[in-house]
TrEMBL record:
Keywords, in A-Z order: ATP synthesis, Cell membrane, CF(1), Hydrogen ion transport, Ion transport, Membrane, Transport
Classification lineage: Bacteria, Bacillati, Actinomycetota, Actinomycetes, Micrococcales
Pfam families hit by this protein: OSCP
Gene: atpH
Subcellular location: Cell membrane; Membrane
Family, as annotated: Belongs to the ATPase delta chain family.
Keyword Transport included in the entry's annotation: yes
Membrane topology of the entry: Peripheral membrane protein
Protein name per Swiss-Prot or TrEMBL: ATP synthase subunit delta
């Protein structure tokens, strides 16, 4: 998102965060209804362009989105109306902002029932479990498979376990990837969880498991470097040979052996 869109999202999110939090467990309904709006925007370019058009007055757009969400929770309608009344650098940014708030609402419902930490752990466990399952990852992002089949496959990764919110997230990530890989969506949702818990998530890829002491030291170092509390999630990938690759938001620190060898090859190639 560019500057104008990012600012618009921030304004709407700041305005409605208390409303979503006050909804408690009902915030899940708000999230599901916002996802329905995301699907409508993705399926109709003309609708998306109309609702994001800055040259059109806000009232007609608010009336249109209210008709689209007829029967929805009043809080959902108010959020959607605020979104379409805002300015967006590109019409796709309206859809992305709506999806972001849908995930926020869904996760806030988990926060209300005390399962947000469990959701975070379960999403990371799914991501970690997929590390060596290339065929499953391929199936989850194969748009020749029906969306419902991809959603069911994703839910099977939980082995019949998982909170209702975790199951909803993994199904959504597989059924409506919106151009992203399944794991990328789960990582994005993990970042939203971290924001709700006022923490940064750092994903560490290592050739071998880290000890508790090593994880603790790394957590402390990253916390000082980033200036906020950090949740370190470790993914073991033996093929990296050695070293660590750390990603925290947009920042990537790559100190693996393979990375250094690749750098050397590039330098030799001139």
């Amino acid at each position: 998102m560019r500057g104008t869109s990012r600012a618009s999202l921030q304004v709407v999110e700041n305005r409605f965060a208390p409303v979503i939090r006050a909804a408690g467990s009902q915030a899940r309904t708000v999230g599901e209804e916002l996802f329905a709006l995301v699907d409508a925007l993705d399926s109709s370019g003309s609708l998306r362009r109309t609702l994001a058009d800055p040259s059109l007055a806000g009232e007609p757009k608010s009336a249109l989105v209210a008709r689209l969400l007829d029967g929805a929770d009043s809080r959902t309608v108010e959020i959607a109306q605020a979104l379409v009344a805002s300015r967006w650098s590109a019409d796709a940014d309206l859809t992305e902002a709506t999806e972001r708030l849908a995930f926020v609402a869904l996760l806030t419902s988990a926060e209300a029932d005390g399962t947000l930490v469990q959701v975070e752990e379960e999403l990371f466990a799914v991501t970690r479990a997929l590390a060596g399952q290339r065929e499953v990852r391929r199936a989850l992002q194969d748009d020749t498979y029906p969306a419902q089949a991809r959603g069911s496959l994703a839910e099977q990764l939980l082995g019949g376990q998982g909170t209702p919110v975790t199951r909803a997230v993994v199904r959504r990530a597989a059924a409506a990837p919106r151009g992203r890989r399944f794991v990328t969506t789960l990582q994005h949702v993990g970042d939203v969880v971290a924001e709700l818990r006022s923490r940064e998530v750092a994903t560490v890829v290592s050739a071998s498991p880290l000890t508790a002491a090593q994880t603790g030291r790394l957590t402390d170092l990253l916390g000082r470097a980033l200036g906020r509390a950090v949740q370190v999630n470790v993914v073991v990938q033996p093929d990296v040979v050695g070293g660590l690759r750390v990603q925290a938001g947009p920042d990537v620190i790559d100190a693996t052996v393979l990375s250094r060898l690749a750098d050397a090859r590039r330098q030799l190639a001139g």
